[in-house]
From TrEMBL, chains A, B:
The gene is trmJ. One of its GO terms (cellular component) is cytosol. It is found in: Cytoplasm. Residues 33-182 form the tRNA/rRNA methyltransferase SpoU type domain. Belongs to the class IV-like SAM-binding methyltransferase superfamily. RNA methyltransferase TrmH family. Keywords: Cytoplasm, Methyltransferase, S-adenosyl-L-methionine, Transferase, tRNA processing. It comes from Sideroxyarcus emersonii. PANTHER family: TRNA (CYTIDINE_URIDINE-2'-O-)-METHYLTRANSFERASE TRMJ, TRNA/RRNA METHYLTRANSFERASE. Catalyzes the formation of 2'O-methylated cytidine (Cm32) or 2'O-methylated uridine (Um32) at position 32 in tRNA. It catalyses: uridine(32) in tRNA + S-adenosyl-L-methionine = 2'-O-methyluridine(32) in tRNA + S-adenosyl-L-homocysteine + H(+); cytidine(32) in tRNA + S-adenosyl-L-methionine = 2'-O-methylcytidine(32) in tRNA + S-adenosyl-L-homocysteine + H(+). Homodimer. This is tRNA (cytidine/uridine-2'-O-)-methyltransferase TrmJ. Its EC number is 2.1.1.200. It is an enzyme of class 2 (transferase). Pfam families: SpoU_methylase.
C-alpha cells in the first residue's frame, strides 16, 4: 500500500500526471469548498454524493432539509465515505447552509437563467478556486425532480450548467456532484492562487442588505409601481456581478437608513401640517 | 419546450458555449462509441450508467455477463433511459463485446499498469474520438469490487485512470461512466477529425493474431524458457502501441504459418532420420 508521500515521489518522477498529491506543501485549494444539497428526496443520492466527494477529496457536506437523513440507504451508497456523512451539517434553510460563504455556484439545467450568469464547469471551477482564497465557497445542488428554486438561484453569484443531451439532460444529483468534483480536481491541477483583490461580504451580510433594501423600497412606496419579487431578483443579479465588499454594504445600508429616516421625517411633517388627512 | 433546432439557434447567438448541438450538420463524433460494462454485480449500477450515457448522448451499451439483467432496479435507476437498456447487448465474453472494435480504452484504478499506457480522461478522450473515425471504439469498465482483470486489460490499447483521492479512489462505476461521458462531450466540442492514417485491425483480428502467435510459440518450444502469460502480455503491449493494420496481420500470420511449417518439416525429417527416437 502506498502512502501519500510515496505517490508524490512517483508522480514527480512520472511527470505528466494530475499532481493531485503535490498539494502536500501548499494549502489544499479544495479545503474551503462545501457541497450543499437542497431538499434531497432519496437518501441513496446523499450517500452516493458523499462517495463522489470523497473520491475527489472534498469533505464538507451540507444538507438543507433532506427528506431522510441519516438513513441506512445513504450509508450503503456512501460505500466507505461514512466520515463525510457523519460530519454532514443538516440545515433548516439555505441561509443557514450558506452562513459565512463568500461565493456560491448554483447548478442549473437551464442554459441561461434570468437572475444569474451561467458558465460551463470548466469555465467556472478555476474561478471557484480563486474565490475560495477569500473565504468559504459553496456548490449548490437542487432537489432531484425540479432542481433549485428561483429563490435559491438568487442566493448564488454564478450558475453552472453541465452540457448535456437536450433531449435527456437530467443528470442524477450524485453524478452531477461527481462531474463537478472531478472538474475541481482538474482545475486545482493548474491553479495558481492570486491574492484576493477584494474582501467579499459573506452570504448573511448580503442577505441583510437585500432585506434592508426590500423593506426600504416598500416604505418609500417604490413597489406601488414595480413587481417586488422580480425587482429584487434584478437587484440581486446586479449586486452579484459587483461582488460587494463588507465596507460597501455598510455604505449602502447607511444610505438606506437615511432614506427611510428622511421618508419618516417627510411623513411626520405632512401629518403635522395635515392633521385632518388619514395616515397610512 | 425547445426542440434541437431552437437550441442550436440560441446557442449560436449566445456564442461561448459547448456547441453540443452544432453536430447537426456533421456526423456525430460520439455515435461510434460503445460503453462496455464487465460482470456488473448490481443492476442499479447498469441503470445509472445508462442514464449517465444518455445525458451525454452516448447510445451503445454492452454488458458482459451481468449478474442480473434485465432487472427492475436497472430500469428504476435508468430514470427514463429505458431505450439504452432495451438496446443493450448482453455478451458472454469480452471478445464478443469487442467484436468489430478498432480501439479499446480500459478504465483502471492503478496509475501505471505494466501491460498498457495509462492516461487521464482529458488526455485520452480526444484520441478516442479520433480513433472512432476508423471504426467502432470501446470504453471498458470493470466489475464493482475489483475492476478489470489483467486478461481484460490486455485487450485494450490504452488505459485511463480518473485522478482521485489516493486514500479513497474507488468511484462508483456509473459515476465513472458519467465522468468519461462528460469528458467525451467536452472533447467533442473542440474535435477536428483527421483522415485516419491507418486502417486499424478489428479486435477479433488482433485476437486471432495473438492466438496464432501463442500457439506457434508453444509449437516451436519457445515457452520452455519463458512464462507464457507474461510473455503474451508483453507482446500484446508491443502490438497495442504499434496499432496493427489488417494487411500487417496477414503478413505476421503468414510468417507464423511458415515458421510452423518449417518446424513441422524439421520434425518430420528428424523422425525419418531417427525412426528409433520417440516423438513428442
Amino acid at each position: 500500500m502506498h502512502n501519500q508521500y510515496d505517490l508524490f515521489n512517483e508522480l514527480g518522477k512520472s511527470g505528466a500526471y494530475f499532481s493531485w498529491y503535490c498539494v502536500l506543501n501548499k494549502p489544499n485549494p479544495l479545503s474551503g469548498i462545501r457541497v450543499v444539497l437542497s431538499h434531497t428526496t432519496h437518501p441513496g443520492n446523499i450517500g452516493a454524493a458523499a462517495r463522489a466527494m470523497k473520491t475527489m477529496g472534498l469533505r464538507h457536506l451540507y444538507l438543507i432539509n433532506p427528506r431522510h437523513f441519516p438513513d441506512a440507504q445513504a450509508t450503503a451508497m456512501a460505500a466507505g465515505a461514512d466520515d463525510i456523512l457523519q460530519d454532514a451539517v443538516v440545515c433548516g434553510s439555505i441561509d443557514e447552509a450558506l452562513q459565512g460563504v463568500v461565493f456560491t455556484v448554483a447548478m442549473t439545467a437551464r442554459l441561461r437563467d434570468i437572475s444569474i450568469a451561467v458558465r460551463t464547469p470548466r469555465e467556472a471551477m478555476p474561478q471557484l478556486l480563486q474565490e475560495a482564497q477569500a473565504g468559504p465557497v459553496a456548490l449548490l445542488f437542487g432537489t432531484e425532480m425540479s432542481g433549485l428554486t428561483n429563490e435559491e438561484m438568487g442566493k448564488a453569484q454564478l450558475g453552472v450548467n453541465i452540457p448535456a443531451n437536450p433531449e435527456f439532460s437530467s443528470l442524477n444529483v450524485a453524478a452531477a456532484v461527481q462531474v463537478m468534483a472531478y472538474e475541481l480536481v482538474a482545475a486545482a491541477e493548474s491553479f495558481v492562487p492570486r491574492v484576493p483583490q477584494i474582501e467579499p461580504a459573506t452570504h448573511e451580510r448580503l442577505e441583510g442588505l437585500y432585506a434592508h433594501l426590500e423593506k426600504t423600497l416598500f416604505e418609500i412606496g417604490f413597489f406601488t409601481t414595480q413587481n417586488p419579487a422580480r425587482l429584487m431578483q434584478r437587484l440581486r443579479r446586479l449586486y452579484s456581478r459587483t461582488r460587494l465588499e463588507d465596507e460597501e454594504i455598510n455604505i449602502l445600508r447607511g444610505m438606506l437608513t437615511v432614506a427611510t429616516e428622511y421618508n419618516a421625517r417627510l411623513k411626520k411633517r405632512y401629518a403635522e401640517e395635515h392633521p385632518d388627512v388619514q395616515q397610512h
